[in-house]
Amino acid sequence: xxxxxxxxxxxxxxxxxxxxxxxxxxxxxxxxxxxxxxxxxxxxxxxxxxxxxxxxxxxxxxxxxxxxxxxxxxxxxxxxxxxxxxxxxxxxxxxxxxxxxxxxxxxxxxxxxxxxxxxxxxxxxxxxxxxxxxxxxxxxxxxxxxxxxxxxxxxxxxxxxxxxxxxxxxxxxxxxxxxxxxxx
Amino acid sequence: xxxxxxxxxxxxxxxxxxxxxxxxxxxxxxxxxxxxxxxxxxxxxxxxxxxxxxxxxxxxxxxxxxxxxxxxxxxxxxxxxxxxxxxxxxxxxxxxxxxxxxxxxxxxxxxxxxxxxxxxxxxxxxxxxxxxxxxxxxxxxxxxxxxxxxxxxxxxxxxxxxxxxxxxxxxxxxxxxxxxxxxxxxxxxxxxxxxxxxxxxxxxxxxxxxxxxxxxxxxxxxxxxxxxxxxxxxxxxxxxxxxxxxxxxxxxxxxxxxxxxxxxxxxxxxxxxxxxxxxxxxxxxxxxxxxxxxxxxxxxxxxxxxxxxxxxxxxxxxxxxxxxxxxxxxxxxxxxxxxxxxxxxxxxxxxxxxxxxxxxxxxxxxxxxxxxxxxxxxxxxxxxxxxxxxxxxxxxxxxxxxxxxxxxxxxxxxxxxxxxxxxxxxxxxxxxxxxxxxxxxxxxxxxxxxxxxxxxxxxxxxxxxxxxxxxxxxxxxxxxxxxxxxxxxxxxxxxxxxxxxxxxxxxxxxxxxxxxxxxxxxxxxxxxxxxxxxxxxxxxxxxxxxxxxxxxxxxxxxxxxxxxxxxxxxxxxxxxxxxxxxxxxxxxxxxxxxxxxxxxxxxxxxxxxxxxxxxxxxxxxxxxxxxxxxxxxxxxxxxxxxxxxxxxxxxxxxxxxxxxxxxxxxxxxxxxxxxxxxxxxx
Amino acid sequence: xxxxxxxxxxxxxxxxxxxxxxxxxxxxxxxxxxxxxxxxxxxxxxxxxxxxxxxxxxxxxxxxxxxxxxxxxxxxxxxxxxxxxxxxxxxxxxxxxxxxxxxxxxxxxxxxxxxxxxxxxxxxxxxxxxxxxxxxxxxxxxxxxxxxxxxxxxxxxxxxxxxxxxxxxxxxxxxxxxxxxxxxxxxxxxxxxxxxxxxxxxxxxxxxxxxxxxxxxxxxxxxxxxxxxxxxxxxxxxxxxxxxxxxxxxxxxxxxxxxxxxxxxxxxxxxxxxxxxxxxxxxxxxxxxxxxxxxxxxxx
Lengths: 184, 682, 300
Description:
The complex is a heterotrimer of chains A (184), B (682) and C (300).
Chain A: H1 7-10, H2 14-22, H3 34-38, H4 49-58, H5 61-65, H6 69-72, H7 78-82, H8 89-102, H9 111-127, H10 132-142, H11 153-159, H12 173-182
Helix pairs in contact in A: 9-10, 9-12
Chain B: E1 5-10, H1 22-32, E2 36-42, H2 48-61, E3 65-70, H3 73-86, E4 94-98, H4 100-104, H5 110-129, E5 137-140, E6 144-148, H6 152-163, E7 167-171, E8 186-187, E9 192-193, H7 194-207, E10 211-214, E11 217-225, E12 228-235, H8 250-254, E13 260-261, E14 270-271, E15 274-275, E16 287-288, H9 294-302, H10 314-318, E17 334-340, E18 342-345, E19 349-351, E20 369-371, H11 372-379, E21 400-407, H12 423-437, E22 442-447, H13 457-466, E23 471-474, E24 479-483, E25 486-493, E26 498-504, E27 506-511, E28 513-515, H14 519-526, E29 553-555, H15 565-583, E30 587-590, E31 595-597, H16 613-617, E32 623-629, E33 635-642, H17 652-656, E34 662-664, H18 669-677
Parallel strand pairs in B: 1-2, 1-3, 3-4, 6-7, 6-18, 7-10, 18-29, 20-27, 21-22, 21-27, 22-23
Antiparallel strand pairs in B: 5-30, 8-9, 11-12, 12-17, 13-14, 15-16, 19-28, 24-25, 25-26, 31-34, 32-33
Helix pairs in contact in B: 1-5, 2-3, 5-18, 6-7, 6-15, 11-12, 12-13
Chain C: H1 3-6, E1 9-12, H2 25-38, E2 41-44, H3 53-59, H4 61-77, E3 82-84, H5 88-103, H6 105-115, E4 124-126, H7 128-143, E5 146-147, E6 152-155, H8 165-168, H9 178-185, E7 189-190, H10 209-225, E8 230-233, H11 236-244, H12 246-253, E9 261-263, H13 264-271, H14 289-294, E10 297-298
Parallel strand pairs in C: 1-2, 1-3, 3-4, 6-7, 6-8, 8-9
Antiparallel strand pairs in C: 5-10
Helix pairs in contact in C: 2-13, 3-4, 4-5, 4-6, 5-6, 7-9, 10-12
């Protein structure tokens, strides 16, 4: 981790922008590290959760938004639950992910995760509900390297009648389309 | 009635003059305010030359009223009234116009500031015109002090006062004095044995002829006022006659209830039902714990007087005192009244021992997760393990101990935002005590910040790291869980950006110092103020650190906020010196700004209609009901009367009175209306 | 329980994962099966849509909010005061979204515009454990037919039922007991264990299976070491991760757990004497015969 902090970062409005978008005030964090201590996925992350907050506190936008950490957060909300200062850390990760996607800077190493989210939402957009089969095939198509992973599970699911080829379409698909249109 | 009033406008450096045209204010006052015969401005009115100017002009100009337009009256009203007194004027003809806090500091531009200042000065001039001479109220002083609480703070204060030759009454609610300090093993930063330095002081107190000690006693009520308190003390039934008992120990040796958790040992050791809390207890005489004693249990069950119960009675049988035994099952609570001049409150703190809000640390369900005071008892030679560090679950000597700082402190999510101040030091000490006893043991400390700011403190905690081998990890622990006979501690080290997982044998929580459970109730009993965390409030954090909000009641030790022993002792000494200053006078002078309920000739006697709304609103309990009697002794009417000793001049009664029978001296209706009417509303 | 509450009709929001022919259909089947015996009556709310799950809230807050809130508005339109969302992903998203629109007026207006319905703050969204605890504990005691033998159940709550606690307001976030109470009510033994609220890796099933394998290993190990021979869940994701990954775990860690993972609704159903097949006991990856067999004694 080689980061140089200059007045350019320190003067930036990153923390303010995060607060305006989400209501989360990172100033409240006193960096005790309890979020990191209890994070079940911390061992996989490039930066610890408390460091992500520190990035926001100090205006290190690039470091925060391009981190793998924000994608690896499993949204288990253990951090926010135990935070002594009641900083909503898990919710902060949501905002940072949203901003990373908007700015097109999401870390390519976690493409599996972003692709999964996209495939999932595409299915919702199309049918109003998840069609697990079609969602999975989109994901596997776009992440061919994962094609062989869990190869045995799909057929087993189908045998048990738990993976249907017929999508569950809702009647109000139009209304779902409208929601997706409004909140692109 | 035509007074000659002088107006003195202060620049307060530039504090006032930057936003207020002080010259114009003075000029306007002279030009437009009736009665003003002299005006001037001065850079610093509160300075020596400033006060001299005031004194000189009172004499030269023959002034009999003064308005000082300066800072808040809370700051310097006293100063200027004293100065005018020296110039031969009754000080209550001096009024302060607050041009700083209420004007220059809050308004940004000069025209507004100046205009408002002119108004403020005019108002005070009008009030001054109606000022009457007032004379200080003299109250006699009972030359005895009460010290509430027998921990190190109370002991120090009591000894200081007694050594100066005054009588002291000490009330301690436990069976022995000593408080938390008696529980500690060794003390930072010198590592001297706590009991070795505490016990001599306890003995000294017990032997001091000026000190009357009530243990197993609590404050029932405090009435009266500065110099003249009436204190009711509840002597709880001890079931042992302190005069007869010699503390021979026969009784507690035969007591069959041997498995009662000892409060003194923080529930890590046991005691009997008739017991002394610890071997060095003062008085070294037992008490019967009536909740657990078999005889009292039986009596309660059968609903008979305890003395009639036939169960056990072993302690009585074995008591060698004759002809009357020292043990008395029929003893009852006794209420004693003591006359007191000044009070020191030294009621101490309570360690956060209920960690149920820390579900992530097991919420109290793991035996081997202990608190700081429990560790003190484990490390103490007089403790349940005689000083050997053994974990409570199985008595094993822990090879790895994890210490967690800031448990219950700096944790607003758990309702406690403050720093307990002592834990950084005592945790460093704990690691040392542990390493001294278990040489190959490992001590890991999770901390957020290290706050060791006392004399020799920084060196002390660094010694724990550099010489004694404690490992400090910067991060709060998120979770403790049990795995086999180990406790897995999930923490972080933010300095390396890592998660830390330690399998420990024991965990010590540096638990917060909290206010006593009944602190709020107790404060209300004494009419003293407290903060959001229920610690008692001093009047001024810097300049009046040991004075409570009630005159004559002083604060010492941790009841006022978390602090360590050196600070506690220093504060106790300060409180004692304040008490001594009070007791050194035969009479006390009190501000005459007090309320008065009118008295008129017969047949009216008073316009008071006896509704006693005033009594309900008075925060100081200063209003009494007084019967006005005819010659034959029959009551004509009952009216309110203000106790001048208790009245603090807040004026609530005057504002509440429906029949306008209450007048606040120095702030009567005529004065206040004159002030208001002088404002020109545009 | 009064006659009044017995008759309560509750809006049923199954969510995608537990409907027929989906990966966790046995959860839905057993929830409905149990409700037919002990109530309360569940009626599916009309034309519900996916709540957006993690994928929506992780990438687009407003989209996530609107997708969730639409379902609550539909429920209100259908006249329900309370909605059961057995999938905790759904119940959590619905409750959080309801809370968010309540706290943020601007968001509320935007969402109302998008879903073309007023948002409702009157409908209470409940998870499955809440519904059982609030309506059916007495009924379970009354209508219990089979007494399980030798079942040592680790109640596993995971994340979404409990966190964020200030918004969900359900049970103790560090040491929840509702499911344990239900386990006790059906006559099985709930073991005390340390991993009740740990995360299983949730939505990383496909995108980060390595994370899931580690986290589920820790959970299975915790349950096994505490003496549990079955883990009860109330979440399709917890179920999928714990049930499907035991082979991978064995490969990775060399320990074969073979612990059946069952829905709490299935356990209730078995105790009520419902047919295992009707509860979807045959749909699991880890064989559940041991659990089914434990319920072979008819209660006196």
